[in-house]
Amino acid sequence: MALAEPGARGRLLRWPRLLLFGDSITEYSFQENGWGAYLAERLVRKCDVVNRGISGYNTRWAKLILPRLITESADGVVAVTIFFGANDSALKELNPKQHVPLEEYAANLKSMVQYLKAVDISADRIILITPPPLQESAWEKACLAKGDKLNRCNATTGQYAQACVQVARECSTDVLDLWTLMQKNQDFSSYLSDGLHLSAKGNSFVAAQLWSRLENKLSALPSLLPYWRDVDHTNPEASLL
Questions:
Q1: pTM above the 0.85 mark?
Q2: Of the listed 29, 88, 89, 197, which one is catalytic?
Q3: How far is CA 66 from the centre of its chain?
Q4: Which residues cross the membrane (predicted)?
Q5: Which of the following is catalytic: 111, 194, 199, 204?
Q6: E strand or H helix at 77
Q7: Can 230 be counted among the known catalytic residues?
Q8: pLDDT mean values, one per 10 residues, the chain (241 residues)
């Protein structure tokens, strides 16, 4: 049987998009039991969850590439997460390539939020995420295994987290303060696999916290295409075109 003529195929289906923008903690979020994979599962047939995590990146580099990810035509972008700071907060004397000074980090975040607003992504659709706390002894072991010295510290990471929260306040966006929330439990090491990146428990924690902020924003999204039991099998064109 020949396919229907192009003009008879109905409107092009355009899936809404949730963009996850960040460093390795975002890039790895689509692995098994990752927080990005959790969001994709919750939003299946409602929204594409697009992973734009780039391992090792900081906000200095991120602000340069954001306009290449979301152009002036931002139609269909229903929400954006911006999750940087774990690399920016690296100690300058030990990791100058990734380090970004605190004031510049805040300015870069603000610049990215302002760009998103300029392409009609409103503040209520933007979520900033602070870096998680750093478990120094575990991360030191990871550094030593690579022949490096401990190149981050939790107190410094906390300063970057506070700056992220302040930017969200000034820009009227939502914020997920992982640095504070994870340390409400005195031993937060179980949230981290190597002192820096998320463990399975940490991924579950981020997924739950982030979903609580996204659910209301995305609750109105309809399911795309009818449930299979609702398709008229005698005349599928009537249901699907």
A1: yes
A2: 197
A3: 13
A4: none
A5: 194
A6: strand 77-83
A7: no
A8: 46 86 98 96 93 97 95 84 98 95 98 96 96 95 93 97 98 98 90 96 97 90 83 83 77
- 23 is a catalytic site residue: no
Q: With 0-12 CB in 10 A as exposed, 13-18 as middle and 19+ as buried, what is 146?
A: exposed
Q: Cβ(204)–Cβ(193) under 8 Å?
A: no
Closest CA to 173 of 104, 81, 86: 81
- For the residues of 66-95, what is the DSSP string, one character each? HHHHS-S--TTEEEEEEE--TTTTS-TTT-
Pick the CATH number of 17-219 from 3.30.300.180, 3.40.1160.10, 3.40.50.1110, 3.40.50.2300: 3.40.50.1110
Residue 233 known to be catalytic: no
Tokens for 163? 């700056």
